[in-house]
Design a protein that fits this description.
Number of domains: 5
Strand content: 25-35%
Structural class: alpha+beta
Radius of gyration: 49 Å
Helix content: 40-55%
Distance between the termini: 149 Å
Length: 801
């Protein structure tokens, strides 16, 4: 007879069976499961549900730590764990990132376990993303419902009530939580017991009946009871008990009318269609937005509003979302009745019946026209010049870059003009900035009119850029500029007065003058500044020669800066002799610059650059101070009557502080003012500038002598020379070089000098014959290579001592 009892298993077999059972339960658990080391966060094991949920392979997950998928920062995680510990719970709400980047809200239930002496967390992962969304929607419905609602837990005890429940039955929320409705609001003589209701609901019946319920003060209320059991995966988790106060039907009707009025009068358009997409109802806002009346839209398909700006794929995607997810949200362009196309933000959701089939669609429309208008205003602030309305530097540089990309792709040319208003600074200084602004506005209008096909921008102050359409030929560029300059022959009216304005422009073309945006703009600027050297209303094309000149100018600028910083300047002296007896009477101080990289740089090259960039003031101080110091280091200058002649630029003379600076240097070095000669050009000497004249007179009053350099090359005014009490005339070396042809001129200059009681100095004496002529003509002094070349101070010192 067979034994009815099974054979007893060994402990090892039992353990193995349990491990196999655990593994089976672990792998086939309906939730994702992670085994985690709490100290390190290392994921030690995962089940297949976790692999499917997180989209990583098992190996990938087991090489990760929990922080790789938990998007919360460590501090927030610690805070949540602390709160859970404080509340004696092992349940957490985290946000986890899947492999495809999607973020999901999850509830993590962690159970501490010991495995082979290792502390681990057995973590069940529940995806609550949809639950949270639905919970938020439910809470809104729950709290805003016009009906009294109680939520009953699985034991049919009240777990939550809304405000209308409290208002309807007179109980506060805290008074009813945890109690059965039977003991709170059921009348004592209710024949329908609570158990009867429970029996029906557990059979899945939605309970609906008119009944009586008891108020806290004892009076009975006629209500319609609707009890809805809530199931998740066939498990009853809660019951919604909805109570409709039948005695307040009129009030509810009024309330519903109020809600309808709100819906009707909301600023957002609302449209409702049936399942066949035929419009059944619209509110006034929808009619206002589309400009169609209700009668014109009822029964029609919303495609009546299509703008034609979206392709079939767009609408296919929209309907895919509607049929799949029951909703769609996005921006769409529609057309009003008057034909205007406008943007709107559209939310569509489906209303579904008990079988889950949509029976209506609700669309909520927000007109985005004003938003777009604001965006355009913001775009205008970013891209447009506020004063003129033209595009600004930011916009034109961005567009030019795109133009050049297209020009390269399609093998086209591109042309840019860079221009400004000549002497604009003087307009601001003499007429005021309001007049300057008005001129800029008028100039902007004229530029847009003449260059209508081009992009016109104001870069800064009075600088403008014009970008022609790609492929514009040179003939059209010249024609447009000619028309523009012709328009400038007409006056501009500023402060009720007419003013004639001129402009200068530079032209640069892609690809000949540069392939990069910034290079083209710079080269057009270079060409413009070259055009400014001529009379106004001119333009120049950029050439490599101009570019090299500018590069050299900046190179020389760097050399000057280095020379000032590293003391690379040094002085040479060219003696001046008495023509009659050959005695040295002084010397002209000449500045030299030897750069370690560029070598000897000519004064003719670096002096104009120094004047342009403002270095001339520092250089002038350095020359005067060092010349005075070196000269006073000799007996000939300490005890004799030799003079020093130093060249002075017009910029120095326009500096009101220049006489004080000179006086300070003379006081510092002890050099006598009466033996210092400042040489100024002929043009400077006759300047109409009151500032220059005042400076020269101040220097003369200090005892300093003033010589007119390169005399005969300009247009001197004898009255001006006499008025300024000049001391010397220096005949330009060009007259001495061609003495055979300029004999009469030289005689006339010498005679004029004598009549004005001025010493006459001849420059550039290179032959014995020239010196003999000057001696016979009665010239006072001379200098030149025939007499002495410029020399370092040590050589000059030997010569005079």
């Amino acid at each position: 007879m067979p034994n009815r009892h099974h054979a007893r298993q060994s402990p090892s077999e039992t353990g193995r069976d349990y491990r196999e059972l655990y593994q089976e339960l672990f792998e086939h658990h309906h939730l994702p499961v992670l085994i985690i080391e709490p100290e390190t966060g290392l994921i030690r094991d995962v089940n297949q549900k976790a692999v499917s949920f997180y989209q990583y392979s098992k190996d990938e997950l087991m090489n990760m730590v929990i922080s790789d998928i938990n998007i919360l920062d460590p501090d927030t995680i610690k805070a949540k764990m602390y709160a859970a510990k404080k509340n004696n719970t092992n349940s957490f709400h985290f946000r986890h990132r899947l492999k495809d980047g999607e973020i999901r809200d999850v509830k993590v239930d962690s159970i501490p376990v010991d495995f082979n002496g290792t502390h681990l967390l057995y973590s069940l992962i529940t995806d609550i993303t949809e639950t949270l969304e639905k919970d938020s929607f439910f809470k809104a419905l729950f709290n805003q419902s016009p009906y009294a609602i109680a939520i009953l837990n699985r034991d049919y005890r009240i777990s939550e009530v809304n405000g209308h429940f409290e208002a309807l039955f007179g109980y506060g929320r805290e008074e009813v939580l945890g109690l059965s409705p039977e003991f709170v609001i059921y009348p004592l003589d209710d024949e329908s017991s609570m158990q009867d209701h429970i029996d029906q609901m557990e059979r899945g019946v939605i309970l609906t009946r008119d009944t009586l319920r008891k108020h806290k003060d004892g009076h009975l209320i006629n209500v319609e009871l609707i009890a809805l059991p809530v199931y998740i995966e066939s498990h009853l988790i809660a019951t919604l008990a909805i109570y409709v106060d039948q005695t307040r039907e009129k009030e509810l009707e009024a309330h519903n009318q109020m809600l309808a009025s709100v819906l009707e009068n909301t600023g957002e358009g609302v449209v409702i269609t049936n399942a066949n997409s035929q419009i059944e109802w619209i509110n006034q806002a929808f009619s206002t937005i589309t400009e169609y009346t209700e009668q014109e839209l009822i029964g029609k398909n919303p495609r009546l509003l299509k703008s034609g700006q979206h392709n079939a794929a767009f609408y296919h995607s929209m309907w895919h979302d509607l049929t799949t997810y029951g909703k769609w949200t996005g921006e769409i362009w529609n057309r009003r009745k008057n034909g205007d196309v406008y943007p709107e933000w559209l939310k569509i959701f489906a209303l579904k019946d008990e079988e889950g089939e949509p029976y209506r669609y609700v669309g909520i429309v927000t007109d985005m026209s004003e938003v777009r208008a604001r965006e355009e205003r913001i775009d205008s602030l970013i891209n447009q010049d506020k004063l003129t309305g033209l595009y600004n530097r930011y916009y034109v540089m961005r567009e030019l870059e795109q133009d050049l990309i297209a020009a390269e792709r399609y093998n086209q040319t591109a042309t840019i003009l860079f221009g400004d208003i000549d002497a604009f600074k003087s307009i601001n200084e003499n007429l005021g900035h309001a007049a300057g602004d008005e001129l800029l506005r008028q100039m902007a209008d004229l530029l847009q009119e003449v260059f209508a096909k081009a992009l016109v921008a104001r870069l800064s102050s009075d600088e403008f850029a014009i970008v022609f359409p790609r492929g514009t030929d040179d003939f059209e560029v010249r024609e447009r500029l000619g028309l523009f300059f012709n328009e400038l022959k007409k006056p501009f009216t500023l402060h009720n007065e007419d003013f004639y304005i001129t402009c200068s422009f530079g032209v640069a073309r892609y690809p000949d003058n540069g392939r990069e945006r910034d290079d083209l703009m710079l080269n057009a600027d270079i060409a413009m500044h070259h055009a400014k050297k001529r009379e106004g209303n001119t333009f120049d094309y950029y050439t490599d020669v101009l570019g090299n000149q500018v590069k050299r100018e900046f190179k020389v600028k760097t050399v000057i800066q280095r020379a000032l910083d590293e003391n690379l300047f040094h002085l040479h002296y060219q003696p001046t002799l008495s023509v009659q007896d050959g005695v040295i009477v002084g010397a002209e101080v000449l500045l030299r610059l030897d750069d370690p990289e560029e070598g000897r740089v000519s004064p003719g090259e670096f002096i104009p650059v120094a004047e342009k960039f403002g270095f001339i003031y520092s250089i002038g101080d350095w020359v005067l101070r060092n010349a005075c110091k070196e000269a006073l280091g000799t007996d000939a200058y300490r005890d004799g009557n030799l003079f020093l002649a130093v060249n002075v630029s017009v910029q120095q003379l326009e500096n009101e502080a220049f006489p004080e600076q000179v006086d300070a240097i003379l006081e510092e070095t002890g050099f006598p003012a009466e033996r210092l000669v400042f040489e100024v050009t002929e043009e400077t000497s006759i300047s109409d500038s009151d500032l220059v004249s005042g400076t020269l007179n101040a220097l003369i009053e200090m005892g300093i002598q003033v010589a007119i350099d390169d005399f005969g090359t300009g247009y001197s005014s004898l009255g001006k020379i006499h008025q300024l009490n000049m001391h010397q005339l220096k005949i330009d070396q060009s007259f001495i070089r061609d003495i055979e042809k300029t004999t009469d001129i030289v005689h006339a200059i010498i005679a004029m000098g004598k009549s004005l009681r001025l010493n006459v100095v001849a420059e550039g004496v290179e032959t014995e014959e020239q010196l003999a002529f000057l001696k016979e003509a009665g010239c006072d002094f001379a200098q030149g290579f025939y007499l002495h070349r410029p020399m370092p101070f040590a050589d000059y010192r030997q010569l005079i001592e």
